[in-house]
Amino acid sequence: MIARAARLEKIPPYLFAEIAALKRKAIAEGRDLIDLGIGDPDQPTPLPIVQALNEAALLPETHRYDETAAGWTPFLEAACAFCRRRFDVTVDPASEAMLLIGSKEGLAHTAWAFIDPGDISLVPDPAYTVYKVSTLMAGGETYTMPLTEEHAFLPDLAAIPADVAKRAKLLWLNYPNNPTGAVATPRFYADAVAFARHYDLLIVNDAAYTEVYYDPADRPPSILQTPGAKEVSIELHSLSKSFNMTGWRLGFAAGNAEAIAVLNKLKSNVDSKQFPAVSLAGAYALLNGDNSATIEIYRKRRDILCDGLNALGWSVKKPSATFYVWTRVPEGHDSMSFARLLLEQAGVLVIPGIGYGAYGSDYIRMSLTVLGDKEGERLAEAVERIARLRI
């Protein structure tokens, strides 16, 4: 067998392997498992978006390569219109936006486009693993920015040593945040932009969850609303969580024109964009999509789960955005031992926080996207099962 690339050795061990094995065992035994682990919308894509795809797929011009410079033009125009309507931000579709085959792909390729061996990425912890893994795969190094409850799960930029900040090229942010559910404030974004300008680095804000929120007063902002942000940042948006379109693999990047051009130079050599019919359906979603029914389902599930656990004596804060509940484990447990206990003794699957980094070791993440749930009954059943445990 030919030796695999050395860069693959940089990928950390799969920390969810034990939980995955226990899940397979429970399913094989025929147990009724309530899966609060996966972060994948369980509701279907809204029908008008599916109908838009059907119509677009009948157009012969969508059957060929997308040979545009940065993505199917109607999609980029719709993305920029979305930014203007939602955030009051002006983005030029010709130079400040590009199509992504889902934001995960865009995040990974951003690391490859900017990180050389020895360069530093400033990476939050706990965090979606793509930021760290993609930096390591590109030969770079990571500096951990702790996200703590005491600091509202926002990184303390002032605590980053100056010598580290001077070597850094990328500052990774993700708000609303996976796994904590935290939302960044305009004040924090202003501080981040000032930090990036001072140290001449690029902010990459993963904004996949901006449209999953529960109160108009808590609408998550965009970093691009911050004065001067387009000089030092790009923001990645996804249609996956906003419109239940995870399998469609569609998103966009917007912001600094030079950074967009760099990312596009890399991507133009490794992919051929998205099926244009999907892009046209995505344009329809950005201009007309309404996922409020799904958000109401998440709200009901959130309230049932959080209120139920708090009635048991837990201290669970309801997230104002995302469909994740992030909470501390009981004393005497770490995230892995408690996740194992819930799975083995209650048939409730959660994600151990250690999988998102060392600073998640005392937490678990529970997702509100539960297959088979109709009116929150599966969340209520999860609470009842947990109530029967001796913790």
What would you say this structure looks like, in words?
- There is one protein chain.
- With 391 residues, this protein is an alpha/beta fold.
- It has 13 helices and twelve strands.
- The strands form three sheets. Strands 2-8-7-6-5-3-4 form a seven-stranded mixed sheet, with helices on both faces.
- Helix 5 links the parallel strand 3 and strand 4 (141-146).
- The model has no long low-confidence stretch (mean pLDDT 96).
CATH topology of the largest domain: Aspartate Aminotransferase, domain 2
Question: Fraction of residues in helices?
Answer: 25-40%
Task: Indicate the radius of gyration in whole angstroms.
Answer: 21 Å
**Distance linking N and C termini:** 48 Å
**Quick one: CATH superfamily of the largest domain?**
Type I PLP-dependent aspartate aminotransferase-like (Major domain)
CATH architecture group name of the largest domain:
3-Layer(aba) Sandwich
Order of helices and strands: HEHHEHEHEHEHEEHEHHHEHEEEH
Main sheet: which strands, in order across?
A: 2-8-7-6-5-3-4
Largest sheet: 7 strands, mixed
Taken together, the total number of domains comes to 2
Q: Please identify the top-level CATH class of the largest domain.
A: Alpha Beta
How confident overall, as mean pLDDT?
Answer: 96
Poorly predicted sequence stretches spanning 5 or more consecutive residues: none
| Helix-strand category | alpha/beta
Count of discrete alpha- or pi-helical segments spanning 4 or more residues: 13
Strand content: 5-15%
User: How many runs of DSSP E, i.e. beta strands?
Assistant: 12
What does the overall shape look like?
globular
